[in-house]
Amino acid sequence: MNKQHQTNMKAFMRSLIVLITVVSACGSNSNSAPLITNVCRGGIHFEGPHWSKTENSLYWVDISKQMVYRLDGETGNITKREIGYGPVTFAITVKDNPRLLVVSARSEVYLLPWDAPTGDGALRLLSAVDLGLPENRCNDGKADAKGRLWFGTMGKEEGSYIDKDQGTLYMMDEYNYVHPETKVRPVSISNGMAWTADNKFMFYIDSPTKNIDVFDFNLNTGAIRNRRTLFSFQANNVTGDPDGMTIDKDGNLWVACNGGAKVIKIDSRAGKLLEQHKMPASQVTSAVWGGHDLSILYVTTSRRGMSPGQLALEPEAGSLFAIENTGTSGLPENQFVFADAARY
């Protein structure tokens, strides 16, 4: 081999090493650790996140402040509306009606145009439930793939104590909104819900049971049957109580652990604990997938009832967080379907 050929070969090998290094560096990004950032501080009891893919925006609530928040996914701008009519626990967009929401206040369900003048006059009453139980209030709510609203209630709160077995899980659509259908009763703290992509199964949380249950689900009729436990917090030594949850494109559940300072990932087929993601707040309340490609996991937290000493240890409690680089992404959130909602 002559000197010129040796020189060319050395140059080629140096270039190859550089190329391999660059490819390795680029490839390492897909294996990077999840990144948690604080998106919004200053809440008391953030809950109920809902991502609107059509608006590229995130809605969520502060139950204690009786407020609904909106994060513009393009600009990062955050706006809010005070309901001032009782605890607000969910805010879900209405299909084909931009910036129109279905929200809860106390044990009632309303339509709320986001751009309407402030004040209670903007609320349009759809339904009132748990009549005769004045201390009850709504809790978590979600829409299924047919646009029906599933929402639950809970009993009287006194500090950390809840009157057990006083709540109900309801299903409401554009036809039965005056008298929503009772689906599960009794429940104590009706919480997280999710459906598989094929809509054959529905997952449900009644928090004090410390279980995630699964039903066989009929999308056409909305019927649920054959309730059984998919995952037990106690059996798997998971701390905290199951609260809100969401599902990813792979069919795995992401569950907020209230009092456990984490979000856990569960295989929804085998009921197996796959991952635990530590959060900088102990009261983790809910989670939803968002962002333009649904790869950001938005997580709400609370600081309600925490002592000054606890708050000193958890200065970010009561914040909205975003987790990126989880290695997966979510499914589009369903919207509530209500014909002529804009004119209701």
Kindly report how far apart the N and C termini lie.
86 Å
**Strand composition percent:** over 45%
- Note the total helix count: 2
Strand order of the largest sheet: 1-26-25-24
**What integer is the average pLDDT?**
91
The residue fraction in helices comes out at: under 10%
Summarize the structure.
With 344 residues, this protein is mainly beta. Helix content is 9%, strand content 46%.
Task: Give me the secondary-structure topology.
Blueprint: H1 3-28, E1 35-40, E2 46-52, E3 57-62, E4 67-72, E5 78-82, E6 91-94, E7 97-105, E8 108-113, E9 124-128, E10 137-143, E11 149-154, E12 157-158, E13 161-162, E14 167-172, E15 181-187, E16 190-195, E17 201-206, E18 211-217, E19 224-232, E20 241-247, E21 252-258, E22 262-267, E23 272-278, E24 283-290, E25 296-302, H2 308-313, E26 320-324
Antiparallel strand pairs: 1-26, 2-3, 3-4, 4-5, 6-7, 7-8, 8-9, 10-11, 11-14, 12-13, 14-15, 16-17, 17-18, 18-19, 20-21, 21-22, 22-23, 24-25, 25-26
Describe the structure.
This protein has 344 residues and is mainly β. It has one domain: TolB, C-terminal domain (Neuraminidase). The chain contains 2 helices and 26 strands. The strands form 7 sheets. It has a 4-stranded antiparallel sheet with strand order 1-26-25-24, with no helix packed on it. A 4-stranded antiparallel sheet has the order 2-3-4-5, with no helix packed on it. Strands 6-7-8-9 form a 4-stranded antiparallel sheet, with no helix packed on it.
